[in-house]
UniProtKB/TrEMBL annotation:
One of its GO terms (cellular component) is ribosome. The gene is rplU. It comes from Candidatus Amphirhobacter heronislandensis. GO terms for biological process: translation. SUPFAM superfamilies: L21p-like. This is Large ribosomal subunit protein bL21. InterPro entries: bL21-like, bL21-like_sf, Ribosomal_bL21. Coiled coil: none annotated. NCBIfam families: L21. One of its GO terms (molecular function) is rRNA binding. This protein binds to 23S rRNA in the presence of protein L20. Keywords: Ribonucleoprotein, Ribosomal protein, RNA-binding, rRNA-binding. Belongs to the bacterial ribosomal protein bL21 family. Part of the 50S ribosomal subunit. Contacts protein L20.
Length: 104
């Protein structure tokens, strides 16, 4: 069974056992997170499309770890104006493992 969920403004296509990286979740590693914004369920030949979500469908996942993403440097330069700016950014991320997909 496969499911498409929406989390943090992104859509993820998941199946049981997948390990994915998402924006940081405020839970401790080892805890379970339940996503109820399931947009699509695919079970063999049967496909259920939500309007906008599939009612009573859930995806359960276990939080494996929290970490920070790679450092991104943003450099802005305005030529011939002696204007430069350097900013940095690192995203806070969580790695999760899908444990269960419940259909409607």
């Amino acid at each position: 069974m496969k499911a498409t969920i929406r989390t943090s403004g992104t859509q993820l296509r998941l199946q049981v056992g997948d390990v994915v990286t998402v924006d940081r979740i405020e839970t401790a590693p080892g805890d379970t997170v339940v996503y109820d914004r399931v947009l699509l369920l695919e079970d063999g030949e049967a496909v259920t499309v939500g309007q906008p979500t599939v009612p009573k469908a859930q995806v359960s996942a276990e939080v494996i770890e929290h970490f920070r993403g790679p450092k991104v440097r943003v450099f802005k330069l305005r030529r011939r104006k002696n204007s430069r700016r350097v900013r940095g950014h690192r995203s806070e991320l969580s790695r999760i493992r899908v444990t269960e997909i419940k259909g409607a």
